[in-house]
């Protein structure tokens, strides 16, 4: 018999709040985290908006300050979210085997802003001025490494880097680690800070970003006929996953049960999803099969829904393919309309939002959805405002460049 896995903690650093209560209020009231970027005018960027983390001070993080001074902001976000999650789980107040506690926290890109800065130094001053801390301040597995050092967790220590599926895949892998007996407890999630000049210029050159600079809060508008691309977002989310009997024995605060996670590939194109939504549908179907539930058992889908012209419609096509007539009965929304797209952290943040929705009994909105695509006419996409709802089982989707896909399923406990 496979082991049951539950969620016993979560930590959040996001454009719409860096605590459970702050993010809940933003989701309930449809608050956008997108704003003008004030510190990049000199770069003449075509995109001048992003969903950045507000009022964040790395000096408030409960970690060695000298080390934090030498690390990229994406690592700050991941460490802070990880510490929040561990504290939330009350794990440190219990007896546990540190060799049975592991970490999988990834990033889509890693320390891009620091890479950008160090390259400028190399070009302007020369190699001898490059920081000796440059490499460990930017590589993706260092969040997992720092959190292991902080807490003494000696179990599996990994990082994922699967583009926009990173956070989802980290959680799915952590789930498997527990089910397969490698660990009793796993921290899992993602972190990202790509809203630097190089990141914005790169995505803008690929024609992926919204250019609605005059209306930042209205720029991310999944499924709306007037959408023109996604908005970059920064932040982190980390979940504590735990084997059910282990959690029960220490009387842990159980937030939800995780039923399954999945992995699939489009095997089609570097950046475009499969035109029939094949890989996305495969990920959802695999997650349902692993959870041993039917499509009709799902109450809500937190969609990948990035606000791109092609991707939004193809995700709907894949949902119809898997859920059939039940698609019109589902609650569906895209919280990227508020948070922007956190790339490698998106799936982890949206998993946390799904758990929050189960706990609090509401469906977060798709804000800015004023003129829905005709292909979505019969669907409940939760436009503009959140709604109260009794949710039992929810699903979260993530799809990334390279055609990599994943889905997670959580159940109310």
N-to-C CA distance: 20 Å
Can you count the helices? 12
Beta-strand percentage?
Answer: 15-25%
Query: Low-confidence segments, ≥5 residues, pLDDT <50?
Result: none
Number of strands: 15
Looking at this protein, list some descriptive labels.
single chain; 413 residues; alpha/beta; Peroxisomal Thiolase, Chain A, domain 1; 2 domains; eleven-stranded mixed beta sheet; two-stranded antiparallel ribbon; 15 strands
Explained architecture:
With 413 residues, the protein is an alpha/beta fold. It is 32% helix and 17% strand. The protein contains 12 helices and 15 strands. Helix 3 (73-89) crosses helix 5, helix 6 (166-179) packs across helix 12 (346-360) and helix 9 (278-291) packs across helix 10 (309-323). It is globular, with a radius of gyration of 20 Å.
Summarize the structure.
The protein is α/β, with parallel strands linked by helices and 413 residues long. The protein contains 12 helices and 15 strands.
List the helices and strands and how they pair.
Elements: E1 5-13, H1 20-29, E2 35-36, E3 49-50, H2 65-69, H3 73-89, E4 101-106, H4 112-124, H5 142-151, E5 157-158, H6 166-179, E6 185-192, H7 197-205, E7 235-243, H8 244-249, E8 256-261, E9 264-265, H9 278-291, E10 300-302, H10 309-323, E11 331-333, H11 336-339, H12 346-360, E12 362-363, E13 387-388, E14 393-400, E15 404-411
Helix pairs in contact: 3-5, 6-12, 9-10
